[in-house]
Design brief:
The chain has 324 residues and is an all-alpha fold. It has 2 domains: 133 residues, Farnesyl Diphosphate Synthase (Orthogonal Bundle); 138 residues, Farnesyl Diphosphate Synthase (Orthogonal Bundle). The protein is 74% helix and 1% strand. It contains 16 helices and 2 strands. A hairpin with a 2-residue loop joins strand 1 and strand 2. The longest helix is centred in the middle third of the chain and has 28 residues. The radius of gyration is 20 Å and the shape is globular. The relative contact order is 0.10.
């Protein structure tokens, strides 16, 4: 087994070979641009690591890992258009650097390219990868639609929110791990169990992201702390604060999340005070622990060595103890 950093290095080297400019330039240049912007490369690393967990050479999983990364970045290009976002990882978004039509078309091409990468596998593996990928891709779209719908709804429930982050974020983490297991020819039970490990870890990861957005350290978080509050996003923190607060704080919170404020700092401070006073902050941290523990429970069912279980547990703990 390699270190996480080494998997990242190997993947980025493979990505650079893949991401070469072709004609027409205005289709492929934006693809090369978004793929080169960096990021944690969490999903492809999970694919490579899982292949080795199930006793395969990680190099056999590079095309599956690349497919996950290309798909993930396709979704970001289209999400940025929908959100009218000016920046992605500190750089101009594709539709800002080029235009909306270019962003749509380059994104479409990336989705097709993600499928093409499965053609490098033999028929049985290809079929299993494509079937999982299709299921995951449609769920990601469903999750994005839920997210869009929630922007104009004031009656979003905690179960609905959890379903949204499961589809929008967690299923892709589960699929990344299951793809590694498929390439390694792991048993169906191991494939399904490693998917559940990744899915639960993905939910915990997104809840942690929600928490850090409000309470992270601005020096290490990598983006504006309080961004979700400014954008009136109905996160787990917000929904739990509504559930636990008295009527006065509920009204205050609803009022703040139904308007745009000229003084964002004051808005952020008031909302964070309500998050803390209501117990929503503590409830969110408990939910993060619960989903992490659900993931760890699945490890007991995997047909792998204790040493590899410890490795996956350490990886999960590392994700949950992050500050970025």
């Amino acid at each position: 087994m390699l270190s996480i950093e080494k998997y990242q290095e190997e993947f980025v080297a493979y990505l650079k070979k893949y991401s070469t400019l072709k004609e027409p330039k205005n289709l492929y240049e934006p693809i090369q641009y978004i793929l080169s912007l960096g990021g944690k490369r969490l999903r492809p690393v999970l694919t490579l690591m899982t292949a080795e967990i199930f006793n395969s050479d990680y190099k056999k999983a590079l095309d599956a890992a690349l497919s996950i990364e290309v798909f993930h970045n396709f979704s970001l290009v289209h999400d940025d258009i929908m959100d009218d976002a000016p920046l992605r990882r500190g750089a101009e978004t594709v539709h800002e650097k080029w235009d909306i039509n270019t962003g749509i078309l380059s994104g479409d091409a990336m989705l097709i390219m993600a499928y093409q990468l499965f053609e490098n596998y033999e028929a049985g593996t290809f079929q299993s990868l494509a079937k999982l990928f299709s299921k995951t891709a449609i769920e990601v779209c469903e999750g994005q639609q839920y997210d869009v719908d929630f922007e104009t709804r004031n009656d979003v429930t905690v179960p609905e929110y959890l379903k949204m982050i499961e589809y929008k974020t967690a299923v892709l983490v589960g699929a990344a791990m299951m793809m590694g297991a498929i390439v390694a020819n792991a048993s169906n039970d191991d494939r399904n169990n490693i998917y559940e490990f990744g899915r639960n870890l993905g939910i915990a990861f997104q809840l942690q992201d929600d928490y850090l957005d409000a309470f992270g350290d601005p020096k290490t978080f990598g983006k504006q702390v309080g961004g979700d509050i400014i954008e009136n996003k109905k996160t787990y923190l917000y929904l739990k604060a509504l559930e636990f607060s008295n009527k006065e704080d509920q009204a205050k919170l609803r009022g703040l999340f139904n308007t745009t404020s000229e003084d964002n700092d004051a808005k952020i401070n008031i909302v964070k005070q309500i998050f803390n006073a209501s117990g929503a902050s503590h409830a969110t941290q408990e939910a993060i622990k619960n989903y992490t523990n659900k993931a760890f429970l699945v490890l007991e069912s995997l047909d792998i060595s204790e040493e590899k279980k410890v490795l996956l547990r350490d990886f999960g703990n590392g994700l949950m103890n992050r500050s970025v």
